[in-house]
Structures are given as C-alpha cells and as structure tokens.
Amino acid sequence: MEAKPPIKVAALCGSLRKRSYNCGLLRSAIELSKESMEGVEIEYIDISPLPMLNTDLEVNGTFPTAVQAFRTKILEADSILFASPEYNYSVTAPLKNAIDWGSRPPNVWADKAAAVVTAAYDLSAGGAQYHLRQIGVYIDLHFINKPEIFVNAYQTPAKFDRDGNLIDEAVKEKLKELLLALQAFTLQLKAT
C-alpha cells in the first residue's frame, strides 16, 4: 500500500515578540511533528513582513511581493495552526492583518482545516480564540472543536523557559492531541 503524502500545516503566530510564548507553542508543535508524528509537516510562516492591508497596494490584480509569497504558502497548505495571545478581547493586529490579506480575492483560506492555541497571562484569552473562530466562518476556514488549548504562561511551575520555549510535558502532550485532531479533520475535509 502506497503511503499517503503528509498534510502540510501552515503555522502562524499572532505575536511578533522575539521570546513569544505563542511562538514557543508553534516551535513545540513543529518539534512534535518531526519527532513523534507521521504524516504531518508543519511550516512556520512569518507574518511580520506583511504591510498593513491597503488595497491601493494591489496593482492590476497583483499583490506586493511579501503578500504574494504569504498567500502562496497558505494556498499550498492543507491546514492552518494559529497561535495568538489576546489583545482587547480579540486577535492581535498582525494576525488579523495576515488573515485579511489572505482573504482578498481569491480567498486562500477557503475549505481548510484549522486549529488555534493560546498562551496568555491567565485563562481569559478565550475571546481571541472565539473571535478567530468567528472570522473563520466568514472566510470558510473550518476549526476543530477540541481539544482547546489555553496555556497560563505565568503559572507555576513554569510552562516556558526564558527564551519562550515550551518546557511543560503535559502541555506538550495536549498539543500533540490537538495536532492529531487537526490531522484527522484535515484528512476528512480532503476526502470530501
């Protein structure tokens, strides 16, 4: 029996901070996919080069170079893994900007599976995750329902080291469960 090609997951972090705990969650997901999962390839997609959405930058149906490169990466992905803190009960401005660029016609998010993880000050970051899910409805992005991952980044014992890397084994295990759910849902969507 021929092996199926792995699903390609585009990983986007809503935080631009160098030692971001949310980026640490994505680094851990990438590590887990390489070490203990078959059939999943995760690529981190840097959203920091994207200009603020301005349709004046679209000329004759083309996008700025950084935007086109980003859109191509999303289009080539089978699913999306978001990691984002919550700012003012919503997703961060850089993440919303990336989503908006991707949704410009033709929408590159459509019919993809998605999952979201959050590291925050406390467990009040549900607003960002739920707002992201609402945005997903409009852009035809389909989120897995469970497991939900909200990591209290400041709780003891420490969940992250000084460089923002995830060190908590229980959270890593939960992250692996999320990746397996995303993989299964992605395959389900691709089969339809």
From TrEMBL:
Residues 7-153 form the NADPH-dependent FMN reductase-like domain. InterPro entries: Flavoprotein-like_sf, FMN_Rdtase-like_dom, NAD(P)H-dep_reductase. Its EC number is 1.6.5.2. It catalyses: a quinone + NADH + H(+) = a quinol + NAD(+); a quinone + NADPH + H(+) = a quinol + NADP(+). It comes from the Eukaryota. It is an enzyme of class 1 (oxidoreductase). Pfam families: FMN_red (PF03358). This is NAD(P)H dehydrogenase (quinone).
